[in-house]
Amino acid sequence: MDLYFSPLACSMATRVALYEAGAEAKYLEVDPPTKTVLSDGSDFRAVNPIGLVPTLRTDEGVVLTENAAILQYVADRFPQSGLGAAAGIDRTRLHQWLCFIGTELHKGLFIPLLDRKAPQETKAYALEKNLSRLDYLDNYLKGRDFLLDHFSVADAYLVTVINWTMATPPIELAKWPNVKAYYERLRQRPSVAKAVAEEFELYKAELARKKAAA
Protein backbone atom coordinates (compact mmCIF):
# COMPACT_ATOMS: atom_id res chain seq x y z
CA MET A 1 0.00 0.00 0.00
CA ASP A 2 1.01 3.58 -0.64
CA LEU A 3 -0.16 6.29 1.75
CA TYR A 4 0.12 9.85 0.48
CA PHE A 5 0.32 12.17 3.48
CA SER A 6 1.43 15.56 4.75
CA PRO A 7 3.03 15.88 8.20
CA LEU A 8 0.57 16.29 11.09
CA ALA A 9 -2.37 16.59 8.69
CA CYS A 10 -5.46 14.42 9.05
CA SER A 11 -3.62 11.73 7.09
CA MET A 12 -1.76 10.96 10.31
CA ALA A 13 -4.85 9.06 11.45
CA THR A 14 -4.22 6.46 8.73
CA ARG A 15 -0.57 6.19 9.75
CA VAL A 16 -1.71 5.51 13.33
CA ALA A 17 -4.16 2.88 12.10
CA LEU A 18 -1.55 1.16 9.94
CA TYR A 19 0.94 1.12 12.82
CA GLU A 20 -1.76 -0.24 15.12
CA ALA A 21 -2.48 -3.02 12.62
CA GLY A 22 1.21 -3.79 12.10
CA ALA A 23 0.69 -3.27 8.37
CA GLU A 24 3.38 -2.64 5.79
CA ALA A 25 2.98 0.53 3.73
CA LYS A 26 5.01 3.03 1.74
CA TYR A 27 4.63 6.59 3.05
CA LEU A 28 4.81 9.26 0.36
CA GLU A 29 5.01 12.84 1.61
CA VAL A 30 3.12 15.48 -0.33
CA ASP A 31 4.07 19.17 -0.22
CA PRO A 32 0.73 20.93 0.37
CA PRO A 33 1.37 24.20 -1.52
CA THR A 34 2.85 22.65 -4.67
CA LYS A 35 1.04 19.27 -4.58
CA THR A 36 4.40 17.63 -5.27
CA VAL A 37 5.34 14.14 -4.10
CA LEU A 38 8.69 14.83 -2.46
CA SER A 39 10.25 11.42 -3.10
CA ASP A 40 10.16 11.74 -6.90
CA GLY A 41 8.94 15.25 -7.69
CA SER A 42 5.78 13.98 -9.37
CA ASP A 43 2.47 15.82 -9.44
CA PHE A 44 0.26 14.41 -6.69
CA ARG A 45 -2.83 15.54 -8.64
CA ALA A 46 -2.13 12.76 -11.11
CA VAL A 47 -3.05 10.39 -8.26
CA ASN A 48 -5.80 12.47 -6.63
CA PRO A 49 -7.07 15.32 -8.83
CA ILE A 50 -8.35 17.21 -5.79
CA GLY A 51 -4.85 17.16 -4.34
CA LEU A 52 -5.87 16.29 -0.79
CA VAL A 53 -4.38 13.85 1.68
CA PRO A 54 -4.84 11.19 2.80
CA THR A 55 -4.91 9.20 -0.41
CA LEU A 56 -4.28 5.47 -0.29
CA ARG A 57 -3.31 3.18 -3.15
CA THR A 58 -4.15 -0.39 -2.22
CA ASP A 59 -2.04 -3.42 -3.05
CA GLU A 60 -4.45 -4.00 -5.93
CA GLY A 61 -3.80 -0.53 -7.30
CA VAL A 62 -7.14 0.96 -6.29
CA VAL A 63 -6.89 4.64 -5.25
CA LEU A 64 -8.99 5.58 -2.24
CA THR A 65 -9.66 9.10 -0.96
CA GLU A 66 -11.47 10.68 2.00
CA ASN A 67 -10.23 10.07 5.52
CA ALA A 68 -13.25 8.24 6.93
CA ALA A 69 -13.40 5.86 3.96
CA ILE A 70 -9.67 5.09 4.10
CA LEU A 71 -9.78 4.44 7.84
CA GLN A 72 -12.67 2.01 7.44
CA TYR A 73 -10.81 0.27 4.62
CA VAL A 74 -7.79 -0.21 6.89
CA ALA A 75 -10.03 -1.57 9.66
CA ASP A 76 -11.67 -4.04 7.25
CA ARG A 77 -8.39 -4.96 5.57
CA PHE A 78 -6.83 -5.89 8.90
CA PRO A 79 -9.69 -7.29 11.02
CA GLN A 80 -7.28 -8.88 13.48
CA SER A 81 -6.29 -5.38 14.59
CA GLY A 82 -9.70 -4.76 16.17
CA LEU A 83 -9.77 -1.27 14.67
CA GLY A 84 -13.26 -1.68 13.26
CA ALA A 85 -16.60 -2.70 14.70
CA ALA A 86 -19.02 -5.56 14.18
CA ALA A 87 -21.87 -5.16 11.71
CA GLY A 88 -25.00 -3.65 13.18
CA ILE A 89 -25.29 -0.92 15.79
CA ASP A 90 -21.57 -1.06 16.67
CA ARG A 91 -20.59 -0.37 13.05
CA THR A 92 -23.15 2.42 12.90
CA ARG A 93 -21.65 3.98 16.05
CA LEU A 94 -18.24 3.86 14.39
CA HIS A 95 -19.67 5.64 11.34
CA GLN A 96 -21.31 8.17 13.65
CA TRP A 97 -18.05 9.10 15.31
CA LEU A 98 -16.09 9.28 12.07
CA CYS A 99 -18.74 11.65 10.69
CA PHE A 100 -18.77 13.75 13.87
CA ILE A 101 -14.99 14.12 13.90
CA GLY A 102 -14.84 14.88 10.19
CA THR A 103 -17.63 17.45 10.03
CA GLU A 104 -18.11 18.99 13.47
CA LEU A 105 -14.46 19.09 14.58
CA HIS A 106 -12.14 18.76 11.57
CA LYS A 107 -14.00 20.92 9.04
CA GLY A 108 -16.34 22.88 11.29
CA LEU A 109 -14.00 23.96 14.07
CA PHE A 110 -10.34 23.43 13.24
CA ILE A 111 -10.04 24.21 9.53
CA PRO A 112 -11.17 27.85 9.92
CA LEU A 113 -8.76 28.31 12.85
CA LEU A 114 -5.82 26.74 11.01
CA ASP A 115 -6.44 28.64 7.78
CA ARG A 116 -3.98 31.55 7.78
CA LYS A 117 -6.01 33.35 5.14
CA ALA A 118 -9.32 33.12 6.99
CA PRO A 119 -10.55 36.50 8.31
CA GLN A 120 -10.65 36.94 12.08
CA GLU A 121 -14.42 37.22 11.84
CA THR A 122 -14.55 33.74 10.31
CA LYS A 123 -12.38 32.31 13.07
CA ALA A 124 -14.51 33.98 15.74
CA TYR A 125 -17.68 32.60 14.17
CA ALA A 126 -16.24 29.08 14.02
CA LEU A 127 -15.38 29.26 17.71
CA GLU A 128 -18.78 30.64 18.67
CA LYS A 129 -20.66 28.07 16.64
CA ASN A 130 -18.60 24.96 17.22
CA LEU A 131 -16.98 25.00 20.66
CA SER A 132 -20.12 23.33 21.95
CA ARG A 133 -18.98 20.23 20.07
CA LEU A 134 -16.10 19.95 22.51
CA ASP A 135 -18.55 20.29 25.38
CA TYR A 136 -20.50 17.37 23.95
CA LEU A 137 -17.34 15.31 23.47
CA ASP A 138 -16.09 16.09 26.97
CA ASN A 139 -19.35 14.91 28.51
CA TYR A 140 -19.32 11.74 26.40
CA LEU A 141 -15.73 10.83 27.31
CA LYS A 142 -16.34 11.04 31.04
CA GLY A 143 -15.45 7.61 32.42
CA ARG A 144 -14.52 6.26 28.96
CA ASP A 145 -11.15 5.20 27.60
CA PHE A 146 -12.20 5.24 23.93
CA LEU A 147 -15.05 6.37 21.72
CA LEU A 148 -16.28 2.78 21.42
CA ASP A 149 -15.54 -0.01 23.88
CA HIS A 150 -12.07 -0.44 22.34
CA PHE A 151 -9.48 1.55 20.40
CA SER A 152 -10.76 2.03 16.85
CA VAL A 153 -10.03 4.04 13.73
CA ALA A 154 -12.33 6.71 15.18
CA ASP A 155 -9.86 7.19 18.03
CA ALA A 156 -6.99 7.38 15.52
CA TYR A 157 -8.86 10.20 13.78
CA LEU A 158 -9.88 12.00 16.97
CA VAL A 159 -6.41 12.05 18.54
CA THR A 160 -5.05 13.39 15.24
CA VAL A 161 -7.55 16.26 15.24
CA ILE A 162 -7.11 17.07 18.94
CA ASN A 163 -3.37 17.21 18.29
CA TRP A 164 -4.05 20.38 16.27
CA THR A 165 -4.82 22.26 19.49
CA MET A 166 -1.05 22.80 19.65
CA ALA A 167 -1.52 25.23 16.75
CA THR A 168 -4.86 26.72 17.79
CA PRO A 169 -4.28 28.82 20.95
CA PRO A 170 -7.97 29.80 21.32
CA ILE A 171 -8.70 26.15 22.18
CA GLU A 172 -7.26 25.41 25.61
CA LEU A 173 -7.81 21.75 26.47
CA ALA A 174 -7.83 22.48 30.19
CA LYS A 175 -11.40 23.71 29.68
CA TRP A 176 -12.38 20.16 28.68
CA PRO A 177 -10.68 17.90 31.25
CA ASN A 178 -12.05 14.63 29.90
CA VAL A 179 -10.92 15.45 26.37
CA LYS A 180 -7.52 16.49 27.73
CA ALA A 181 -7.14 13.26 29.72
CA TYR A 182 -8.21 11.21 26.68
CA TYR A 183 -5.68 12.99 24.47
CA GLU A 184 -2.83 12.62 26.96
CA ARG A 185 -3.65 8.95 27.47
CA LEU A 186 -3.75 8.19 23.75
CA ARG A 187 -0.55 10.10 23.10
CA GLN A 188 1.15 7.39 25.19
CA ARG A 189 -0.22 4.60 22.99
CA PRO A 190 2.72 3.19 20.97
CA SER A 191 1.10 3.59 17.55
CA VAL A 192 0.12 7.19 18.29
CA ALA A 193 3.40 8.14 19.93
CA LYS A 194 5.38 6.75 16.99
CA ALA A 195 3.23 8.52 14.39
CA VAL A 196 3.32 11.88 16.18
CA ALA A 197 7.08 11.76 16.74
CA GLU A 198 7.84 10.84 13.14
CA GLU A 199 5.48 13.37 11.60
CA PHE A 200 6.63 16.16 13.92
CA GLU A 201 10.18 15.68 12.67
CA LEU A 202 8.94 15.76 9.08
CA TYR A 203 6.95 18.90 9.85
CA LYS A 204 10.05 20.62 11.20
CA ALA A 205 11.90 19.66 8.02
CA GLU A 206 9.01 21.11 5.98
CA LEU A 207 9.26 24.41 7.85
CA ALA A 208 13.01 24.48 7.24
CA ARG A 209 12.49 23.97 3.50
CA LYS A 210 9.99 26.82 3.37
CA LYS A 211 12.34 29.11 5.28
CA ALA A 212 15.21 28.29 2.95
CA ALA A 213 13.04 28.95 -0.10
CA ALA A 214 11.78 32.30 1.19
From TrEMBL:
GO molecular function: transferase activity
Residues covered by the GST N-terminal domain: 1-82
SUPFAM superfamilies reported for this sequence: GST C-terminal domain-like, Thioredoxin-like
Domain GST C-terminal: 87-214
Record keywords, A-Z: Transferase
PROSITE patterns tied to this protein: GST_CTER, GST_NTER
Domain of life from the UniProt record: Bacteria
InterPro entries xrefs: Glutathione-S-Trfase_C-like (IPR010987), Glutathione-S-Trfase_C_sf (IPR036282), Glutathione_S-Trfase (IPR040079), Glutathione_S-Trfase_N (IPR004045), GST_C (IPR004046), Thioredoxin-like_sf (IPR036249)
Protein name, as recorded: Glutathione S-transferase
Organism encoding this protein: Bradyrhizobium shewense
